[in-house]
């Protein structure tokens, strides 16, 4: 852990960042911590081309266990399992087609409780199928399965190749305590928004902070480089 920059921690303040949300997003009451039980809430922001949402199927990724859905005002949940009894998907369906609205006017929230994999600094994706029905009873489907990370709605690659709609994603944080925390990162980290509430991050002679004052001190400190990415197997120190 770097011991220089004696005034850095005294003058820096924490910054609260705002994460971008997909049109179907997953959040919780707090950070998703590796190896813990997490209450995941999925927000269905809109329907399909003007049609109301009728059914949502969320596939459960490998490593996410002890899954238990919650029924909602949207509809009851049904669970699918594999031969080992592990939950592979959960589907919420409106109670009847009569409950489907004549137009896309509402957002919906669905929830489940599950134990997260013990894999900090990784992203868990929940591929989701959204089925909608219009006023004439015609169904349409959108697959939210993109895993490229922070994909845009209907994004294109170099303006030519359509990209999959982004799957709901959940970044898995390591356990932490106030003060200094030492981690060995086993996944490549290039999106430093995950450290938006950290005072400072050290890796060897490199450091990062979302706080502009701290960032300026890092940039001017002799012998210190700005940390821009973290490779697997790197030991880091993070102060919260």
Question: Could you please describe the fold and organization of this structure?
Answer:
With 240 residues, the chain is mainly β. The chain has two helices and 20 strands. The protein has a six-stranded mixed sheet with strand order 6-7-4-10-11-14, with no helix packed on it. The N terminus is likely disordered.
Strand order of the largest sheet: 6-7-4-10-11-14
The arrangement of helices and strands along the chain is: HEEEEEEEEEEEEEEEEEEHEE
Gyration radius (Cα, Å) is 21 Å
Helix content: under 10%
Mean pLDDT metric: 87
* Strand-residue proportion: 35-45%
From the N-terminal CA to the C-terminal CA, the straight-line distance is 14 Å
The biggest sheet amounts to: 6 strands, mixed
Structural class: mainly beta
Can you count the helices? 2
Low-confidence residue ranges = 3-22, 150-158
Number of strands: 20
Q: Based on Cα principal axes, name the global outline.
A: elongated
Report a brief summary of the structure:
This protein has about 240 residues and is mainly beta. Helices cover about 5% and strands about 40% of the residues.
Q: What topology emerges from the helices and strands here?
A:
Elements: H1 8-11, E1 24-27, E2 32-33, E3 37-44, E4 52-59, E5 65-70, E6 76-81, E7 87-93, E8 108-115, E9 122-125, E10 128-133, E11 139-146, E12 156-157, E13 161-162, E14 165-166, E15 169-173, E16 180-185, E17 200-203, E18 206-208, H2 212-220, E19 225-226, E20 234-239
Parallel strand pairs: 2-15, 11-14, 18-19
Antiparallel strand pairs: 1-3, 3-8, 4-7, 4-10, 5-8, 6-7, 9-15, 10-11, 12-13, 16-20, 17-18, 17-20
């Amino acid at each position: 852990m770097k011991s220089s920059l004696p005034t850095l921690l005294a003058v820096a303040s924490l910054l609260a960042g705002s994460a971008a949300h997909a049109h179907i997003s997953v959040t919780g009451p707090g950070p998703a911590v590796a190896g813990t039980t997490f209450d995941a809430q999925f927000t269905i922001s809109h329907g399909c081309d003007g049609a109301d949402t009728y059914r949502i199927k969320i596939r459960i990724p490998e490593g996410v266990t002890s899954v238990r859905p919650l029924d909602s005002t949207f509809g009851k949940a049904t669970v699918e399992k594999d031969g080992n009894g592990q939950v592979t998907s959960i589907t919420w369906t409106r109670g009847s087609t009569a409950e489907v609205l004549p137009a896309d006017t509402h957002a919906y929230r669905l929830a489940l409780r599950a134990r997260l994999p013990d894999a900090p600094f990784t992203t868990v994706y929940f591929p989701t199928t959204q089925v909608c029905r219009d006023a004439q009873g015609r169904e349409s489907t959108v697959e939210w399965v993109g895993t490229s990370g922070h994909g845009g709605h209907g994004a294109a690659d170099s303006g030519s190749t359509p990209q999959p709609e982004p799957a709901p994603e959940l970044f898995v944080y390591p356990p932490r305590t106030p003060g200094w925390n030492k981690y060995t990162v086993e996944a490549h980290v290039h999106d430093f928004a995950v450290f938006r509430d950290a005072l400072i991050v050290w890796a060897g002679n490199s450091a990062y902070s979302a706080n502009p004052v701290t960032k300026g001190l890092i940039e001017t400190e002799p012998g210190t480089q700005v940390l821009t990415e973290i490779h697997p197997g790197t030991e880091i120190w993070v102060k919260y």
